[in-house]
């Protein structure tokens, strides 16, 4: 793999040299004071990210605990649902893409699930969610940034419904937290989940949870899955340890990644992600391409990921186009499940520079040209530059 290979996939994202170096330090015991210091640094940095993900860095939580779990975001999603819902409890799962569907499937294994389902890429109709949530609902699950479609979902509006019915609200912020606004208390979020490898720009293999004080009161432990017993994780985290052996190198990488975020500052980081995603959208539109999802007033385009409909010339068979991109040292993603062959997706999560964004635009433009799709790459670069300068 060339050293300058540019990952523009929606995770894993490129790692800084500091994160890479931290992961190769000599091993220590997960019960040592050295490890406790690592976990404490990771928790401090995550507290900052979870509690101050706003454009002015104002505090958005009245108190909660940041946890790191061995295992990617799916582990975090399961931990959240399985600790808050018993088998007879009703979980309302909002689904308008692959990860909303995954949340529903996870919940199926632990509770009685009602799906409020929309086509992938269609906005969430909050009235339909209102019809499904009742005083019998124990948990509502929602994905903030639907990575499979590039749509940002109305977390606050659904959170209000959950709060009205005193249901716990579990939000997958896997591809938003660390790159976009996320307001824990204002949006009534009880447990927020994110992944090391996405907008935090850490390694794959660990997930991070923010467990609010409200959620803690509902977590008892006894019926929880053994490995994902959040009561146990919360108790051990008071001394900056985990119940079982921690993935030490990954915790180290994550600790450095979240410290880097604090150095940049969440307000600047959110503004940068917004500039960069606006630049990608403008560039693809200047190429004459259509952005993928249909929007209404409750939804908006993602600020961390751009999904674009493939033009007719490569629709249904994008392999050659994708190979042209990787031959130029860049990697992007195609559509998932039934969206395969219909869209492509480009991430701007993590620590990308303007040069990275422009390189992505140029590479995609040149690759379209190489497979016979006539696009104006220079116009696309100009459109991107306009946004990157703002
Ligand atoms: N949720 C969202 C929104 C995601 O984008 C992803 C991964 O892309 C996940 C959950 C699951 O992450 P993983 O497959 O790493 O467990």
Task: Describe the fold and architecture.
- This protein has 390 residues and is of the alpha/beta class.
- The chain folds into 2 domains: 17-264, Aspartate Aminotransferase, domain 2 (3-Layer(aba) Sandwich), CATH 3.40.640; 266-388, Aspartate Aminotransferase, domain 1 (Alpha-Beta Complex).
- It has helices at residues 17-23, 33-51, 73-84, 98-108, 126-132, 155-164, 213-216, 230-237, 248-264, 266-286, 319-327, 354-370, 377-388, and strands at residues 6-7, 64-70, 90-95, 112-117, 137-143, 145-146, 151-152, 168-172, 191-195, 206-212, 300-301, 305-309, 330-331, 333-334, 343-347.
- The strands form 4 sheets. It has a 7-stranded mixed β-sheet with strand order 2-10-9-8-5-3-4, with helices on both faces.
- α3 crosses α4 and α12 packs antiparallel against α13 (377-388).
- The two termini are 34 Å apart.
Regarding quaternary structure, what we see is: single chain
What is the first-to-last residue Cα distance?
Answer: 34 Å
Q: How many individual β-strands?
A: 15
Major sheet description: 7 strands, mixed
Q: Which superfamily, in CATH terms, is the homologous superfamily of the largest domain?
A: Type I PLP-dependent aspartate aminotransferase-like (Major domain)
Q: What overall geometry do the principal axes of the alpha carbons give? A: globular
Residue share in β-strands? 15-25%
Order of helices and strands: EHHEHEHEHEEEHEEEHHHHEEHEEEHH
- Helix and strand content put the structural class at alpha/beta
Rg, please? 21 Å
The CATH class assignment of the largest domain is: Alpha Beta
Strand order of the largest sheet: 2-10-9-8-5-3-4
Q: Which topology of the largest domain does CATH recognise?
A: Aspartate Aminotransferase, domain 2
């Amino acid at each position: 793999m060339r050293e300058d290979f540019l990952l523009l996939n929606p995770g894993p994202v490129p790692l800084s040299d500091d994160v890479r170096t931290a992961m190769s330090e000599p091993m220590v015991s997960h019960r040592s004071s050295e490890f406790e210091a690592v976990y404490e640094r990771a928790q401090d940095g995550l507290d900052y990210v979870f509690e101050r993900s706003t454009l002015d860095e104002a505090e958005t939580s009245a108190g909660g605990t940041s946890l790191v779990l061995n295992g990617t975001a799916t582990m975090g999603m399961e931990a959240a649902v399985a600790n808050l819902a018993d088998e007879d409890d009703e979980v309302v799962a909002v689904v308008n893409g692959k990860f909303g569907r995954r949340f529903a499937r996870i919940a199926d294994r632990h509770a009685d699930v009602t799906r409020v389902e929309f086509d992938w890429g269609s906005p969430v109709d909050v009235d339909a969610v209102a019809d499904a949530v009742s005083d019998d609902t124990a948990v509502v699950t929602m994905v903030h940034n639907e990575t499979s479609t590039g749509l940002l979902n109305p977390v606050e509006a659904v959170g209000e419904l959950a709060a009205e019915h005193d249901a716990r609200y579990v939000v997958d912020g896997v591809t938003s937290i660390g790159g976009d606004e996320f307001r824990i208390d204002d949006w009534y979020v009880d447990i927020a989940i994110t992944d090391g490898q996405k907008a935090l720009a850490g390694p794959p293999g660990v997930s991070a949870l923010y467990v609010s004080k409200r959620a803690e009161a509902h977590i008892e432990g006894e019926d929880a899955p053994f490995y994902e017993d959040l009561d146990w994780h919360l108790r051990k985290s008071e001394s900056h340890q985990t119940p079982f052996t921690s993935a030490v190198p990954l915790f180290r990488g994550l600790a450095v990644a979240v410290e880097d975020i604090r150095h940049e500052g969440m307000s600047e980081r959110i503004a940068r992600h917004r500039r960069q995603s606006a630049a990608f959208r403008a560039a693809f539109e200047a190429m004459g391409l259509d952005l993928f999802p249909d929007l209404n007033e409750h939804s908006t385009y993602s600020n961390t990921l751009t999904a674009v409909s493939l033009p007719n010339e490569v629709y249904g068979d994008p392999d050659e186009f994708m190979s042209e991109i990787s031959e130029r040292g860049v990697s992007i993603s195609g559509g998932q499940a039934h969206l395969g062959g219909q869209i492509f997706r480009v991430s701007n999560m993590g620590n990308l520079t303007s040069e990275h964004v422009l390189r992505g635009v140029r590479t995609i433009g040149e690759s379209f040209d190489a497979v016979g799709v006539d696009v104006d790459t220079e116009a696309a670069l100009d459109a991107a530059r306009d946004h990157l300068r703002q």
